[in-house]
From TrEMBL:
It comes from the Eukaryota. InterPro entries: Cadherin (IPR039808), Cadherin-like_dom (IPR002126), Cadherin-like_sf (IPR015919), Cadherin_CS (IPR020894), Cadherin_Y-type_LIR (IPR000233), Catenin-bd_sf (IPR027397). It comes from Oncorhynchus tshawytscha. Cadherins are calcium-dependent cell adhesion proteins. PANTHER family: CADHERIN-23 (PTHR24027), CADHERIN-7 (PTHR24027:SF91). The chain crosses the membrane at residues 601-629. The keyword Membrane applies. Its main location: other. This is Cadherin domain-containing protein. One of its GO terms (cellular component) is catenin complex.
Length: 789
């Protein structure tokens, strides 16, 4: 560091000395100005009276005295002190000063070329006495000369890079770039050379370009996957005394598929239960591969063994383990072990590394089947049976069979799952498995019965197998045909003889295998009628025709025609269905307008529009009446109390709610706290309450004084004010206090003996023996004495 400091100071001294000599001995060519001459009116070019050089000043000057920059001089200045020099422009007076007598320019502050490379100033020579310019103002430049005071910097560092493992020597990794703030056009201060300080011998760097490259072949990621490099950039073309900067480069080796997979062992053995369901995982095989990511993805296959169609091996997506899954059911009694030869290989193989060996491996897997107690197995898990709906109770439908697959060969007992046969249509023999009917069957109610049969081992009742039986009920001809729909047949009064007025069809709940075939005819009693006839269309339909014309509603409004329908079953079934035919008044197109005698009466009286209008008026009147009644009921009762109504039977409610102790506007809280104000108020009453209700009992005695009540309340209030346990909020306290007198006096009948009442109770003696006791108490004897008992 000391040598570097002295070297820098010596360099600055040499540059300053050279610059001073340049400013003194190498003036630039003068810049000419033009002056006018009045002789003969011609223009003459004169040489400029004063000149100066383009100045240079060294940056980072650290001397104690101002740095001399240069000197200005004018030919007008004869040395008599008549001319003074003035300096203006960038940094004038703040950075650069001029001696107005001699024209010497000095720099008073340390300059930094990286902040500002040059300064543009203006100089002028003026007359000292009148301050008038003796020369035109001219502009000049002071350039700040560069020194090597900035080290190279890596603006994008630190760096990180990735390069595949096993890359050949010279593979480009990353390019580092250092910048130097010094002047690249002056000297070697900004010429940078790169070198590697740490990371050898694995990597190298190009000195001029900064390209980092691999320096060793066959770098293995599995051995080491990261390298930390330190790159140096030094200016002055790397010579001694140059400044330098460093950066770090973290190089990560990425994986390539250069390692083949291999099994952790050459043979494996696993056990599995014979009761495992299909698609269960029976074994997991661990495979090793030093590579990662897609280069470690595996593929498995079974290349040999006695379980090629029974097992399947696939890779686990997360762990890349080989998963052996079951493809078919196992049976210990049939085969108790299996041997497989499995192979593993990489899914993504890099052809560059095939010379390292085959990228696959094989192993032997032995699978042992463990015996378990299995439930009975039916010979057919799904059976289909047929039974005629005409079958009698107890008819055999079919037989199911199950056996114990274990070596114990336990006897089997059969039963029906009654959840699938709720109405108990079927029975099964517990020993033989014979299924029979328990109730009559009806195909039209339920054509297919889905019944579950259980088979249970006698020695191990918990072992239960099951199968499904589909019992189809075949059809017999047990339902007679009927009309397909409820027909509403209309006959126009203008109908002609032979006119088809209806086409009828039939339906039958039975389903014969050859399809339905219906025959239509009139019953024997209707065959001789003179009004209608029936024609069988031979396509399971029939047409009803008129035999005459001139039908009138006034004569007969409705005709009933019995129709006999017979099916083609064996034996054939038939039913009689009645077709109702109404006589109607029709429009010219044959559409019915009004039918029956009711329509005739309406036509003779009021029209339909008139009836609708009358009904509308009646509804309107009813609505008005309901509104009036409702409004009357909603009328409020008068607020003034009736004189005959007892005021004690009414509750006057006031919805006034105070705002608490802070509310002093709605109520006077002082009056509530100080009962003395109540005493002094003179008994003011509220104007919204009836001030006084007349007493129901007349008394000549004056009302008692209420002072005892006031005193009692006043004492209780003072006790509550000083009670520390009283709640801090408004509360209601109730006291039981009874006065000494009443305005109504005593209501007891005991005092009636001493009253001077003029009421005569002698009539009680005439009311019979039930009132004899009262007559004795209140009645008078013949001598005028009062009886008492």
């Amino acid at each position: 560091k000391i040598q570097k400091k002295y070297y820098k100071c010596f360099l600055i001294f040499l540059i300053s000395l050279g610059q001073t000599l340049q400013n003194i001995f190498l003036p630039l060519p003068p810049v000419g100005t033009y002056q006018r001459s009045c002789e003969g009116g011609a223009h003459h070019r004169q040489r400029r009276s004063w000149v100066w050089n383009q100045f240079f000043v060294l940056e980072e000057y650290t001397g104690d005295e101002p740095l001399y920059v240069g000197k200005l001089h004018s030919d007008v200045d004869k040395g008599e002190g008549q001319v003074k020099y003035v300096l203006n422009g960038q940094g004038a007076t703040s950075i650069f000063t001029i001696d107005e007598n001699t024209g010497d320019i000095h720099a008073t502050k340390r300059l930094d070329r990286e902040e500002q490379a040059y300064y543009t100033l203006r100089a002028q020579a003026r007359n000292r006495e009148n301050n008038l310019p003796v020369e035109p103002e001219s502009e000049f430049v002071i350039k700040v000369q560069d020194i090597n005071d900035n080290e190279p910097k890596f603006l994008n560092g630190p760096y990180s890079a990735r390069v595949p493992e096993m890359s050949p020597v010279g593979t480009s990794v990353v390019t580092v770039v250092a910048t130097d703030a010094d002047d690249p056009t002056y000297g070697n201060s900004a010429r940078v050379i790169y070198s590697i300080l740490e990371g050898q011998p694995y990597f190298s760097v190009e000195p001029k370009t900064g390209v980092v490259k691999t320096a060793l072949p066959n770098m293995d990621r599995e051995a080491r996957d990261q390298y930390l490099l330190v790159i140096q950039a030094k200016d002055m073309v790397g010579q001694m005394g140059g400044l330098s900067g460093t950066t770090s480069v973290m190089v990560t080796l990425t994986d390539v598929n250069d390692n083949p997979p291999h099994f952790s062992r050459k043979s494996y053995q696993f056990s599995m239960s014979e009761s495992l369901p299909v698609a269960s995982v029976v074994a997991k095989i661990k495979t090793l591969d030093s590579d990662v990511g897609p280069n470690a993805e595996m593929e498995y296959r079974i290349v040999d063994g006695d379980g090629l169609g029974l097992f399947r091996i696939t890779p686990d997506r997360d762990t890349q383990e080989g998963l052996i899954t079951l493809q078919k059911g196992l049976d210990f009694e049939t085969k108790s072990s299996y041997t497989l030869r499995v192979e593993v290989s990489n899914r993504n193989i890099d052809l560059r590394f095939l010379s390292l060996g085959p990228f696959s491996d094989t192993a032997t897997v032995r699978l042992i089947v463990e015996n378990v107690d299995e439930p009975p197995v039916f010979s057919l898990p799904l059976s289909k049976m047929l039974i005629s709906e005409a079958a009698k109770v107890g008819t055999t439908i079919g037989t199911v069979s199950a056996h114990d697959p274990d070596s114990t060969n336990s006897p089997i007992r059969y039963s029906i799952d009654r959840n699938t046969d709720l109405e108990r249509f079927f029975n099964i023999d517990a020993t033989t498995g014979v299924i029979s009917t328990a109730k009559p069957l009806d195909r039209e109610v339920n054509a297919i019965h889905n019944v579950t049969i259980f088979a249970m081992e006698s020695l191990h009742p918990l072992q239960v197998g099951k199968c499904i039986i589909l019992i189809t009920v075949t059809d017999i001809n047990d339902n007679a045909p009927v009309f397909a729909i409820e027909y509403e047949t209309y006959l126009c009064e203008s109908a002609r003889p032979g006119q088809v007025i209806e086409t009828i069809s039939a339906m039958d709940r039975d389903e014969p295998q050859s399809g339905h075939r219906f025959f239509f005819s009139l019953t024997a009693e209707a065959a001789g009628n003179l009004n209608f006839t029936l024609r069988d269309n031979k396509d399971n339909t029939a047409s009803v025709l008129t035999m005459r014309g001139g039908f009138q509603r006034h004569d007969q409004t409705m005709y009933r025609l019995p129709v006999l329908i017979m099916d083609g079953g064996s034996p054939a079934l038939s039913s009689t269905n009645t077709l109702s035919i109404r006589v109607c008044d029709c429009d010219p197109d044959g559409a019915p307008q009004s039918c029956g005698s009711e329509a005739s009466m309406l036509s003779a009286g009021l029209s339909t529009g008139a009836l609708i209008a009358i009904l509308a008026c009646i509804l309107t009147l009813l609505v008005l009446v309901l509104l009036i009644v409702t409004m009357r009921r909603r009328k409020k009762e008068p607020l003034i109390l009736d004189e005959e109504r007892d005021v004690r039977e009414n509750i006057v409610r006031y919805d006034d709610e105070g705002g608490g102790e802070e509310d002093t506007e709605a109520f006077d809280m002082v009056a509530l706290r100080n009962l003395k104000l109540v005493r002094e108020s003179g008994g003011k009453t509220r104007r919204d309450v009836t001030p006084e209700v007349p007493s129901l009992f007349l008394s000549s005695r004056p009302p008692p004084d209420n002072g005892i009540f006031r005193d009692f309340i006043w004492d209780r209030l003072k006790e509550a004010d000083v009670d520390a346990s009283a709640p801090p909020y408004d509360s209601l306290q109730t006291y039981a206090f009874e006065g000494s007198g009443s305005a109504a006096e005593s209501l007891s009948s005991l005092d009636s003996l001493s009253t001077d009442s003029e009421q005569n109770y002698d009539y009680l003696s005439d009311w019979g023996p039930r009132f004899k006791k009262l007559a004795d108490l209140y009645g008078h004897s013949d001598d005028g004495n009062l009886f008492a008992s």
